């Protein structure tokens, strides 16, 4: 990549207005052949709107222009035109058909046929194996169903499919819209290697991410959007993390993590000898006001604990005690957990934490809806006023109870779900990767709410592989390996480096 090369994608003056509200204003974007170009900004900065214009989902306001491979495009696009013109997309949900095979996902609408229009399956398998081979994916069977693959392999298949589309057009741009949100760290690294293979073949790459470490380790240049405006484009190597954060936020971040507090001596939650698939005899006693982290290398079992305690997954044996009551987990359920004062915020909020086609109001009052009944009548006015108060208090933008939940940005979805559980007044909060897919500004607000909950006497259990977050938020961290606890790190020795050391030391020690 050199600055003198003609751009493979050139966007000029892109704007988008919804109902009189401008969410993207006169944005320019230039992608060069062979470059990985980061696109960053807070939730609501305009990133998703820009990507959806390129994908043909949204029509831009009049006056914008897009050129791909030197060819001016006729706006607005539609999704089929975007694909045909050399714009290939990999979204968070990957867009694969899970009930079809790898081969079918990669080759549908492009099958080679012989006499009688019969598909030449032998040739098809050769084509797919050759495409997988480019990315070193010899372990993926073309005839395997996509829903049988690990999440990281599904992501790789989505990359291969996008690459094959680009090859058909002999040039273009691969657009990655936060593809690493649901991937473990080692899986994300495999994806980055695949992305470099695409860029080395001469294609441009747009990489949308909230993770600054991914920006600095992967991209050549980066464009920052804020409040719908392009505020900066620069070579990544010329930036520091502090500078980039200031550009994203438009101000100094200040202290990201809230200050600590005193932990009360009274017990809040006791987990006693829990045994389940992938978990061997786990016990834990938590006090009021305590924040405990569960971590380890990806897939070591710690991620299952919140769901077992909440009754969302079945345990073979074990019990929990809270609010003076004891519950056997073999017969526990989410309804009983909520009644016992336990709340769960899952990692995959759209699939497991919310009804994305329902309104924000319907999601926020889901666990407290009964409180708005009076003599058999729902007090809708009271419900709406209370939800509006919560959205403002938790800085959800827009603070609109009637907004469809799935249309909120990731950080605002997470803050709305935290508001829902705070309104239910639990005594125990279970969190699984609470900042996944959340920008830096929203993270600070979420951390403050976690600390507020603990300061009010609640107990917080966080399962996460974000070691820095755990080091700053937790009073102690428990490290898992192969479903069992291998170490516990107390407050006096709790740093990101110590957590990393314990996670990887246990791996090395078992070798």
Specify the CATH homologous superfamily of the largest domain: P-loop containing nucleotide triphosphate hydrolases
CATH topology group of the largest domain: Rossmann fold
Instruction: Tell me roughly what share of residues is in helical segments.
Output: 25-40%
Distance between the termini: 42 Å
Output the keywords:
alpha/beta, 6-stranded mixed beta sheet, 511 residues, 2 domains, 17 helices, Rossmann fold, disordered C terminus
Q: How would you summarize the topology of this molecule?
A:
Elements: E1 9-18, E2 21-31, E3 36-40, H1 47-54, E4 65-68, E5 71-72, H2 79-84, E6 87-90, H3 102-107, H4 121-134, H5 151-169, E7 173-177, H6 185-200, E8 204-208, H7 212-218, E9 221-226, E10 229-235, H8 241-249, E11 267-276, E12 279-287, E13 291-296, H9 305-310, E14 317-322, E15 325-328, H10 334-339, E16 342-345, H11 349-353, H12 360-364, E17 373-374, E18 377-378, H13 380-393, H14 410-423, E19 428-432, H15 440-455, E20 459-463, H16 467-473, E21 476-481, E22 484-490, H17 496-509
Parallel strand pairs: 3-8, 3-9, 6-7, 7-8, 13-20, 13-21, 16-19, 19-20
Antiparallel strand pairs: 1-2, 1-4, 4-5, 9-10, 11-12, 11-14, 14-15, 17-18, 21-22
Helix pairs in contact: 5-6, 14-15, 16-17
